[in-house]
Amino acid sequence: MGKYLKTVAVAVAVLLVCVLMAYYMKDVNKSATKGIFAMDTYMEITAYGRDSEEAVEAAAREIQRLDELLSTGLEKSEVSGLNQNKTGTLSADTEYLFLRSMELWRETEGAFDITIYPVMRAWGFDTQVFRVPAEAELQTLSTRVDASGLVYNEEDGTLTLPEGVEIDFGGIAKGYTSSRIARIMREYNIRSAKLNLGGNVQLVGARPDKSAWRIGIKSPDGTLPYLGVLSVKDKAVVTSGGYERYFEEEGVIYHHILDPKTGRPAQSGLVSVTIVSADGTLADGLSTALFVMGKDKAIAFWRENRGQFDMILLDTENRLYVTEGIAADFTAEGSMTVEIIR
Ligand code: ADP
Ligand code: MG
Description:
Blueprint: H1 2-28, E1 31-38, E2 41-48, H2 52-70, H3 78-85, E3 87-89, H4 92-107, H5 117-122, H6 135-144, E4 151-153, E5 158-160, H7 173-187, E6 192-197, E7 200-205, E8 213-218, E9 226-232, E10 236-241, E11 246-249, E12 252-255, E13 258-259, E14 264-265, E15 270-277, H8 280-293, H9 295-304, E16 310-315, E17 319-323, H10 324-327, E18 330-332, E19 337-341
Parallel strand pairs: 17-19
Antiparallel strand pairs: 1-2, 2-6, 3-5, 4-5, 6-7, 7-10, 8-9, 9-18, 10-15, 11-12, 13-14, 15-16, 16-17
Helix pairs in contact: 2-7, 4-8, 7-8
The structure holds adenosine-5'-diphosphate and magnesium ion.
């Protein structure tokens, strides 16, 4: 009798372990995806892991929160308040973005400048009611584009804008948002996630099977599906191009990445700039700034800061330039010529 009971007990125990293991495995392989429209673009968050559902919900809330804080299009946002009142106390997120933006402004010699907003408005990029401003208007507006006029008091956290100056974090906000979400993913113990914030891709870890993610770098004119494919883990991959947001008037294309010096869409000979970096905020800011700076300055900038990022440039001659840190991980579309930058 005792022996019989023991056998049953062992069998039950084995069964229990099996059921628990199956349950555990099922949970580990769980994934969740959520689409969100925010910051003027479509975003998609995919997470793998036991708490993936909770993690993507938390990500969506964070996107909503940052959108309401940073959107120039929302009258009640913190940024709109600063633009209307010309002064205000910065919240932690806005302070971080402001300080990073100023750092980029200095390092790119003004190619990245958050005071570009009045010029963005003059072209109608805020309302989508587009127009081509007269040269005189642009000259007047360009004199106001100058981040050096922004006064930040670190003691009490207030930012003061000169009369006529308005700011916009549009060139950096999505990258910051993606790095915030990557952090949230880790808080939820998610080891594998892909965040696509309208072309700003942020990867958390590797794919669930531990292999690298394969990210297609978008082709601007649509004749090719992709310029190439990048194998990458745990990094942000951000592309800026004049083809993302533009309007056409009398056969001329006017896009939304402006040269602060001229107030006009940057014409630097580059068609697109992809930045690969562990720092999503940096990747976003640099994708905009290096697009304005053009190929030669972008390459010089990379040589001075090569530890911080890698890049893929496409010029108007349809040539690709890939920095050596990612050259082995990038497979260009067959018809493209590629030069490796060292
Ligand atoms: P997207 O928002 O399409 O992904 P970008 O990251 O290149 O593209 O950001 C473009 C946005 O950055 C514009 O919509 C505008 O808000 C802002 N911007 C445009 N030109 C500049 C500039 N020279 N410096 C800083 N921000 C800029
Ligand atoms: Mg950008």
